[in-house]
Amino acid sequence: MELTDAPAVWLRDNCPCALCRDPRNGQKLFQITDLPAEPVIASTRELPGGSGTEVIWAPDGHRSVYAPGRPGQDTAATGDGRTEADKETWVAADLAGRVPEATWAEYLADRAERERVLADVARLGFALLRDVPRRPGQVLDVAASFGFVRETNYGELFDVRVEPDPNNLAFTGARITPHTDNPYRDPVPTLQLLHCLTNAAAGGDSGLVDGFRAAALLRAENPEAFEVLTRTPVPFRFADAHTALRADRPLIDVDARGRIREIRFNNRSIGTLRLPAGELTAFYAAYRAFGELLQRPGLQLDFRLTPGDCLIFDNTRLLHARTAFAESGARHLQGTYADLDGLFSTLSVLRRQRPLDDLAALFAGQGAEQYLGEEVTQAQHMLQAAALAEADGASPALIAAGLLHDIGHFHSTVSGEDLMAGTDNRHSHTGADLLARWFGPEVTEPVRLHVAAKRYLCAVEPEYFGRLSAASVHTLEVQGGPMTGAEADAFAANPYARDAVALRRWDDRAKDAATVAPGFEHWRAMLAGLLRTDVA
After folding, report:
1. At 459, is the secondary structure helix, strand, or coil?
2. Taking residues 250-278, what's their average pLDDT?
3. Distance (Å, rounded) from C-alpha 513 to C-alpha 526?
4. pTM over 0.70
5. Quick check: 4 pLDDT over 80?
6. Which CATH class is domain 3-74?
7. CATH of domain 101-211+230-274+290-349
């Protein structure tokens, strides 16, 4: 959606300014009733250097500045990641040779590997971690690696093994057909983890069925049955001496757009439906059709958990099953429940930090090149600028601006050599525009203005020019020379002028070949805290 195509009320509701959103957390500072009932765009203009679009509103004169590509860039998003629209559905053959798995050591050590595993759970519905230490309670550590344990009447964790007086068929050696767990809870635990400690029994193999694919097949083959199962609330129940739980939910739940969102299927937990005879007849026909489809050959992925395996799966999408096993054999799994929101949150944060990997690579790669005729490399220069900002007690945002202020040299079509030869590469604007994809204006605008700040200081502080290095004197002329009086006044009126001047002074001092500044990783946690929360 282009900016000019957006409804005015939507655009005003998404104003990013500090009067409308808390710059620390991005949360709105107004209610919908605080906005004009019919906001009107009084005027628009493109800001210099392609830094964004300014909108002036009527009737209240409010000023909004929208960064390039925002706010309409996410209009193609399908939703919150929970429905079939965001999934890759599958049958067993689709996963031949590509079952999503990783070792526990790789998962812990490599951020990219951890992201991949969690993305597989989100997209395919499950992932298998291998070589997880066979320590009782270890499954809780696996859950804690991406979210929080959902404690139930079974406790924080539960043992899946033969019990002398079981309150659930899972604690016997009986065959268990494809089902979802805890359908009698609302909300249902959305993730389940099973960690294999021992599996020496004859039988006891595991299976998974993609309930979303099965439901989509039912919709295509028997739309009437699909419709019945989406609109009929089913009383799921569980009771023992200490617990009584009930949730009335359909077997197939869809969102407001009709997209499959949740499967609850557990024949052991369905209570007695009390509906008119015609509705009961229609429900049981649909229920049977879905049950038969779930056991259709080829849908179920069969495998055997071996000691050290930990299976993580989406309990609102995948149905899990097991074959019968000899109760005299040793089979012991430990399980726990968690929730998708925690996993999605961790996955989002991991994805949001991808730019930091790219920036680190720039410092290690192109950053090792010489810096415009100075005695330091480009990376040493930027790292020194950040260290100087930190030593002077600057804010994290301004330290980040110091660290990243020359990143535009790496992305300009005009090289640093061309700049020294007389062609301005406008690296301050190029860098600010790049950084605006990931950081807010408190980082980007001092970067955008740091070249202008040199021109400004030359105009208002006669002694400043004399402190510039020879290379900086040369580039000053290429970049426009000292400001005129009118230009200096306009610069000083910019809300980020003070920060830009501070950044400029660190920039000028950060050229000491004898100084060893902390490396990029020293700043990584700080940068992570400054990343915009809407970065995908």
Report:
1. helix
2. 96
3. 25
4. yes
5. no
6. alpha beta
7. 3.60.130.10
